[in-house]
Amino acid sequence: MKILVAGGAGYIGSHTVKELLAEGFDVVIFDNFSSGKEKLIVGGQVIKGDLRDKEFLKNVFDSQDIEAVLHFASLIQVGESYLNPQKYYTHNLISSLNLLEAMLDKGIKNFIFSSSAAVYGLPQQIPIPEDHPLQPSNPYGQTKFFIETVLQDYQRAYGLNFISLRYFNAAGADPEGQLGEMHQPETHLIPNILLYLLGRKKSFEIYGRDFPTPDGTAIRDYIHVSDLARAHVLALKKILKSSSSAEFINLGTNKGYSVLEVIKKTEEVTRKKIHFIEKPRRKGDVPVLLASKEKAEKVLGWKLQYSSLTTIIETAWKWHQKNANRKA
Hints:
- By secondary structure, the protein is α/β, with parallel strands linked by helices.
- The chain has helices spanning 11-22, 54-63, 78-83, 85-105, 139-158, 189-197, 225-241, 259-270, 294-300, 309-322, and strands at residues 2-6, 26-31, 45-48, 66-71, 110-116, 161-167, 169-171, 205-207, 219-220, 222-224, 246-251, 257-258, 277-279, 288-289.
- It is 39% helix and 18% strand.
């Protein structure tokens, strides 16, 4: 069975491709390599192209016998989305609409969407369940919310079979050491700490010591990228067996760690002291984000394997040490 993975050379996409190949799927990676990396491709057919090019996309679907699509391709930086919302609305929305149009033109109706906890905005309850009100507080989150609305309309009107996976803080690296995080610029907490310890960053900053949390720093739900990848394969298998599916599912751990707790655990794993500079809160940062994982366990049969904070940091540390010579 041939599966198209849009954004398959990115962080989460590449780990999912590895999982798909291990399960025997025939994978076509579609990526423009604006942020994806050739180093993160472990197999499958690779097509370099941009989802905003409708004609090229049509030719890809005409030449490939695709049966399902996993969509990871997206701009993801919350801060940048505030500064340049036009870029985010144009890129994330148009690329998704073009992809869905190309699918439906070929009668392909199986779609797994990479969504985000950003659709919830400021949490009204913790852990956040899937029926929590959707009130995104930044343009990035708005783009994910808009696409989810499109998916529901397309399911009703065209019979689109979809599962939208809303995940929280992806972290860690492939336990076998083949894959890991290579964002440029890097905005995530754990890799920024590790790059600082490896001398690839001159300083390390934390943002906000005045959150209403026990130690004043923001609390997040960290989930290992390999557990995320597994959830995508389980979602794909479920959707291929279903004649009609329209699901929104959180991927998280029900457990959170503050920035200072992550720093402390990283010091334990690396046996290195971390010095940080305190900065003001970033616009749009909420105090606590934790996901309810009950629906993922019930609907997908999903079980966490690598998402202890220790394992997340150990696998990420191994990856970043291996790739320490790359430009920070």
